[in-house]
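Handout, section 4.2: multi-component inputs.
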Amino acid sequence: MTNTDSVGMAAAVGAVAIGAGRAVAQTGSAALDAAFETLKTYDWGSDRGALNPIDQAIIASHGDAAARKAIEKRLVDALAGGLSRSAQDYVCRKLKVVGTSQSIEALAALLPAQETSHIARYALERIADEKAAEAMRDALPKVSGKLKPGMIGSLGVRRDTKSIKAISGLLGDSDIQVAQAAAQSLGLIGTPAAAKELSAFAQKAPANMKIAAADACLVCAERLLADGEKSEALALYKQLNSGDQPAHVKVAAMKGMLAATTRK
Amino acid sequence: MSAGRRAFLKTTAASVAFPYLIPASAMGNAGAVAPSNRIVMAGIGIGNMGHGDLGSFLGRDDVQYVAVCDVKRDVRDSQVNRVNEKYGNKDCKAYRDFREVMVRGDIDAVHCATPDHWHAIIVIEACRNGKDIYCQKPETKTLREGKLMVDAARRYSRVVSGGSQRVLEDYRGIVDACWGGSKGIVKSINVNVGPLPTDCNKAGEPVPDGLDWDMWLGPAPWAPYHPHRCSGSYNIDGTSWRSFKDYSGGGMTDWGAHHFGGATFAIDVRELEPEEVIFHNENGRKFATCRYPNGKLLHHNYPGRGNLDVESTNETGPSKPVPNYAGTGGIYGDFIDCVKTRGKPFRDIEYAVHTATVCHLFLIAYELERSLKWDTAGQQFINDDEANRLVDVARREPWVI
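Output:
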């Protein structure tokens, strides 16, 4: 960045900005009620500040399980009541932070639609409850090819071992973006079972999947090594260090072999 | 996205017509032999800051650009003409989709100056395709991205440089004083920077002709086009993407990449990550402090303290030489020199990520308005499920990292 703002100017701006960016806490029920009422008609172009009482109520409810559950329920109810895309977007962002098993059914209902699938995952991917993964696993075979890479990716980020079989079945998908997401996610899951699937696929991967398959194998091997699965990691590295892999992949595999063999 | 998907399928499936240059990497990367002894480069995200980066690399005799890529047609058209006019030929090609650039086997290195929400995807894709990369700051958009980027760089032995030239060039006085010992034993340093990013709910407007809006959004949540969303202006006042949470960490990461980078360099903690961020709220005045494993403190907006203001003892501290760029030509020359020698750049991705991590820790502490403990090895917050949800964001399909 080469703009001409001076350090001093930035300092002055920064010093006042933290307080200014946050509305004064308004956790009283009237303000909160008004914000939830606003949510019903909220849309692109609406004043974002009108929802600040909800933001503040979430912050204020940290450590208060009952209050947190109550505000989560209000968000879920709002979602179920029919909202604009912008309002759905807002609610899902909040459920990313406060969502529990209580939210999952409402979020799962948004997964199949192209307009809302991602923003539902935006919350579900980060909710640790197993039911969140289950919702995405259930949705995977039902959603369109365009949405599949996202679902696969979220399951991979969660290292969801229960989805290995379903994801493996998509490695050879004719849609390269689905196939690549499948390879990447198996790499992220990084268990011996995922390694077995990746290893088999890498040996027969078409030209346009070679780099994705090799990279997934390397990522998987690193996860295996970190988890103490040394022999499985070594097997993947050896496989990649042979055949017609690009030089940089072979070098990476060689480094991996060295790391695996020297690891106690 | 459909046009992009079609283009990508076509590209990756088979051949792409482009002038074939033997990459320097194929010749040993030691600057021995390559066409005109140049590093063959591509630029991705070439408006605004990318325009400046392109100019800096383009001015070098040891670099040859063969590709430029941008989702804005007017930008890529003007920049491909700029490159071709410089070389007096038509060899440089323009691309809308960076994946078509990444599969070209004749490119050694890439510079990336897209909006921040794209950085991790592009850096990792460059590494897995065997390319070195110079990435503009702030290098990460989330905490999780940082480790993935460093891992990719190390996995493939790539030269990956972060993009803040100010870390070394703007704060030299305080850096020399700290490293030279005249500042004494350093206890803390303060950085004043802002503002925080905000949500953007601007109403949609017609997408301008020549802009691939879906590709501009990329992994970020869908939103209607508005000129302020995608403006690359340096203002962080709600009129540029740098203002908004989906694309940037606001001033905290934009200017923070410079200031925190300089501060962590000055107090010599650039190889470390903080293990705690302490949130303060004194009568409504909010500020925060990161504490490093060695006890050093990095304050943000500490009341009464100036930017890069160091707190230290009066005694003379230990002295050691200050690291510097390799090669000639500042941070750009440093990157190119390291591409040739396979050295570690001054702003190695790991140092850059550590700086960005500081910014994200502060952002999350302010977002949640509480103190947090950070497990540097596990890359997660300790005993705080809510904070851990903010370590990353789900990416919009088809993007996965």
